[in-house]
Design goal:
Keywords: Hydrolase. This protein is an alpha/beta fold. 40% of the residues lie in helices and 11% in strands.
């Protein structure tokens, strides 16, 4: 098996986050009487959610936003990307080890996964922002995975791929020596210029739901080359 270790981003890779993320932030801004951010302004995220809020509303105390967010967040559920649960089931049945490395904090992480019908038991490890020594795009974000697998980055990276929707995902994978597959299910697909456009066609899928077929085609091609 070429890639026994499959590592996934979470938001807009496995679960559809951005549409509800936009609606929730716009709803809170409206209720507070703050400037309402556009979807385009909300595309940029990071390095943390708090940093994102501070960029949107500089110099404003964020406690009112945080308090209202806690009251309203449960009204906005995040579904799974269409076809992803079935794809993950196929990958597990084929013997792949599934992992999540996300910028999302532990707060509501399991809740969002439950809403999407993605049991945590499907994954060998789920590493939130707080679990990583440094978050994406730093390659050390993958250190918890390598440690859990009992190997070093150099020994494990070539056996793994990372699947994500944002440029930070690609940069982290590249710096770690991990293969990368980009998916067009995140907000960057709406941008006039996206990092996905700079990748080869073979590196980009419409959705993570296509990953089982992509891996199967890759293994068939490698088997054919081995017999030449």
């Amino acid at each position: 098996m070429r890639y026994p270790v499959l590592i996934f981003d979470l938001d807009d890779t496995l679960i559809e986050s951005f549409p509800e993320y936009v609606r929730l932030h716009q709803r809170i801004a409206t209720e507070l009487g703050w400037q309402i951010p556009s979807a385009e302004q909300l595309v940029h995220y990071g390095p943390t959610w708090e940093d994102t809020l501070a960029r949107l509303w500089p110099g404003v105390g964020l406690d009112p936003f945080m308090n209202l967010y806690e009251q309203l967040a449960d009204d906005h559920s995040y579904p799974a990307i269409n076809g992803v649960p079935d794809a993950l089931t196929q990958l597990r049945e084929r013997g792949h080890s599934l992992w999540i490395v996300t910028k999302r904090s532990r707060r509501r992480l399991r809740q969002r996964m439950d809403q999407a019908g993605l049991p945590s038991e499907w994954f060998a490890g789920i590493f939130a922002y707080e679990d990583q020594p440094v978050s994406k795009p730093d390659p050390r974000c993958f250190e918890p995975v390598w440690q859990a697998l009992g190997g070093s980055r150099s020994s494990m990276a070539e056996r793994a791929i990372y699947v994500g929707d944002r440029e930070d995902d690609q940069l982290a994978a590249s710096a770690a020596g991990v293969g990368f597959v980009g998916v067009r299910t995140g907000p960057e697909r709406h941008a006039s210029s996206s990092f996905l456009d700079r990748l080869t066609r073979e590196q980009v899928l419409d959705s993570a739901a296509e990953l089982p077929a992509w891996l199967e085609d890759l293994e068939d091609l490698e088997e054919l080359e081995d017999h030449r």
